[in-house]
Design a protein that fits this description.
- The chain is α+β, with helices and mostly antiparallel strands.
- The radius of gyration is 26 Å and the shape is globular.
- It is built from 3 helices and 11 strands; from the N terminus they run H-E-E-E-E-E-E-E-E-E-H-E-E-H.
Amino acid sequence: MRILTACLASLVLTLTIPALAAAPKKAAPAAAPPADTAPKEIGQFHNWIAATHTESGHPTCYAFTRAGNENPATGSGPILSITDRPSGRDQVAISGGPTYPKDATLTVQVDQAGLDFYTAGRDAFARDNKAAVAAFQRGSLAVAKAPGPHGPTTLSFNLDGFSAAHDAIEKACPAH
């Protein structure tokens, strides 16, 4: 009986030790986007970064800046951006803010200009893109105020470099 028990114990150890010692297999790394669709920086213009990438085979250019301060802080790093696509030019948005209440309106103050943005989840979009671009080109600071889940939210964006970044994306993705 002892010999049978010893043989079984030996067999169990022989089968389990290699399995325990084997290194766990790592998951295959996620495939990188094809090189032609990966974002490519056009340049940095003071507080703004301009870049381009390919969407559905067409060039898309955008410029963005991060919020200089956020009150209250959500820790999400909201950005103000402008995008040029073949389907639309000068699309102005604020992304990565707090989750806005349904049908909320966000107001962006640039000097004396008050701009209305509509919201969807954590994003806000300019109702009048041309007016937003014109205000950003003249202004130095954009202050967005919106209702948030825990009270009003204020985001500040430095506009220094906006005009140069806008010119760079217009040149990189000319209108057709």
